[in-house]
Task: structure prediction
Amino acid sequence: MPSATSTEPLFINNSGTVTGYYVDSARVPHGFIRSASGDITTFDPAGSLATFATSINSGGTVGGYFGDTSTDHGFLRAPDGTFTVFDPPGSLNTLVSSNINASGGLAGEYLSTNGRQGFFRTAVGEYTTLNFGISAYSRDLYPQTDGGNNVGTLVGWFDLSNDVNVEGFVRSSSGPFHIIVVPGAALTFPISINASGTIIGYTQTEPGVPYVGFVRSPSGS
Result:
């Protein structure tokens, strides 16, 4: 990228198209798309002061978030370059933390007057708030979705005590939550799920020790 001082690719889809962001000489982040043939397109939603593209699906739609003069918002960028800017109802600040799936659904977290909560947004703009019914003031929920998971299943984690006790979850498209805790772990971070339901992530036995990866089969083992 011209004038880039650093570049961070974050996702590659099945056709070899890459998206992410780069920082220019003025230290401003911008989004980019690099095709499999090497063509690069840079972009920013209108009003953006900092753009972070986090993923691209098989159809070429990019998901991410950006900051303007007041707060952060989520965005979708269609293959033709048009943007959809969004915030969950009641959001004071929106971050997109997940990969966009093939249907255009993605997840993230937002700050409201009730604290920080997770959300899932469908391609048509319908929202599901993820809060486990626990206090969002003291417990955060970080949903993740994998680009290969197209049935609306989410994985992520929630913070019970300021990164001292973190548990994972898997939530099916029909709504039920199942808690995921790796045996012996104080902190469990599921980060991705594929179409067959296999989950990967990382874990710690206690804060400060090295992370260890894990794979969880669809049966839970």
User: Anything to note?
Assistant: The first strand starts at residue 4 and ends at 12. The chain has two domains: 1-86, 109-126+134-221. Residues 134-139 have pLDDT under 50 and may be disordered.
